[in-house]
Amino acid sequence: MRSMIFTPGHRHDLVAKAIACGTDAVIVDLEDAVALEEKPAARAGLKNLPRANIPMYVRTNAIETGLLWDDVVAAGQANIDGLVIPKAESADVLREIDGALRALEMANGREVGSITVIPLIESGLGVRETFNMMSIGGRFAAAHRWRRARRPRC
Question: What is the DSSP string of 2-55?
């Protein structure tokens, strides 16, 4: 992936605009871009995201917020390609996310492992635990490949 556009999770009009920009992926943000009181509606709206010919990801809230699991369930029931997990620092948490997604995929008739997870490394502890987190394998992927990025047309 060369370019990813983040859009607020409660603004589907901006999601559609991002899709039209020519980006390589759209990240629907439930974390920083959505006020706390709007998060439940943003989660509920994931089922109504516009379809695209590019990958659609959902950035969840971090584990310490207490909002992660509601985000994982809502995203796992939507027709998305993956999750972006902020402030990833624990292989154990990622294993729990894998288990939750496995159950959601099975319950919703999706192929097990079809929802990719991109952990965002944002702290020293995350850096230290990167090997353990990425050793889980399967659905977990690195978000960035170092190469010259192209700019989207928006």
Answer: --EEEEETT-HHHHHHHHHTT-SEEEEESSTTS-GGGHHHHHHGGGGPPP-SS-
User: Residue 147: its pLDDT value, please?
Assistant: 41
Q: How many residues does the chain have?
A: 154
Domain boundaries, the chain: 4-134
pTM across the whole model: 0.89
90: tokens are 């624990």
Within 10 Å of residue 10's Cβ, how many Cβ atoms?
21
Buried b (16+ CB within 10 A) or exposed e, 122-154: eeeebeebbeebbebeebbeebeeeeeeeeeee
Mean pLDDT of 83-111: 96
Instruction: Give me 61's structure tokens.
Output: 């809230």
4-134: CATH number = 3.20.20.60
